Amino acid sequence: MRLTEAGTDPDRDPTAVVHAALDVGVTLLDTAEMYRNEELVGRTIAGRREEVILCSKFGVRWGDSGRFDDWSVHADAATVVSSCEGSLRRLGVEVIDLYYLHHRSEHTPIEETVSAMAGLIEAGKIRSIGLSNVTVEDVRRAHAVHPVLAVQEAWSLSTPIPGSMSETLAELGIALVAHSPTGHGALRAEDSTSLGVALGHIARHRGVSPGQVALAWVHCQGRRRDEVVVPLPGTTSVRHLHDNVAAIGIELDDSELDRLTEAAAPTSVA
Fold it and tell me: Which GO terms describe its molecular function (predicted)?
């Protein structure tokens, strides 16, 4: 959840969003050092910490320019420890359930990073290790140092995940946490592309929104492949939350799944 302060809109009150999620059984709460909202997230879960699977990430730091493309990766052992201490302090908790390396480093061997993360487990500061924005080779090397629980990567109809990554995660028993399952919101509305037309047709037939169909496609991929796939849609309002939760119950049939997959292929034309 990219939670921000609500302003005057009660539907976007961050505490209301998180509590509404917990009330309907959504327990996975994802944040990051980079998001600059860990203190806010900590306030939203105060009093309900035991109901939450709390995830955070480290390793990406913003530059001083304020530009969106001004960031760098820091994944050395000392940074692993200091970043975790900072996140624990900002979140106001004693342990983080799932702690991710936010982005692979070109300079620090992943073995050094994961060894330091394993040390955090031994110290009782985190419970599990995750990786994000990594390669298949990174996953194998990291998993050889310490078991990796989850890998978080973008996956949606508009952002396919490489088959080699999916196969590797299944082989090693690692969960795929699929962020941006509606293509950063681009799949929430019907358009004139082949994929947009397919989403709109299925949505009208089922009486739901195109965005819910796109999210249901990701949910169904896990069941279809017999793999652990956890969609992670960005949710910033109570209304949006309920729409996302409702998508869990949409069981797309094989013909619908195939139509969407074919429409999403780069060669598809309307």
Answer: oxidoreductase activity
